[in-house]
Predict the 3D structure of the following.
Amino acid sequence: MTNRDRRIAAHGRQVKALELRLAGCSYEQIASQLGYAGRSGAYKAVETALRQTLREPAEALRTISLERLDRVTLAIWRAANAGDLRAIDVLLRIEARRAKLLGLDAPAKLSFSLEEINAEIDRLEAAVKAREEGL
């Protein structure tokens, strides 16, 4: 087997490791299924596959999470569409998670009065003073 063949085989194994992780397998399960010596080998394979996609790690994990949400949505879509209230509830929770993950929800607006802010500052200053006196 040439060096090129070994690299191609390693890449294929890394892609399989990433697919298994996407499916929800633990690193131990991935190692067992693909013949890695341990969980660290499986972890490295998944990380390498993610890096090869040229994405930031957070973006890659977001993509994996979105793919999982898509798969679960497909699994319950018919039941929800048929009016199954439990499936509808699950679908709404999936969509809420998707919106949060993608930042689709409008940010919560916070409103504080000047009196509330001053009261909180006073409370914090008192707590700091009490702590300093206790030391």
Observations:
- Residues 1-54 form one domain.
- The mean pLDDT is 88.
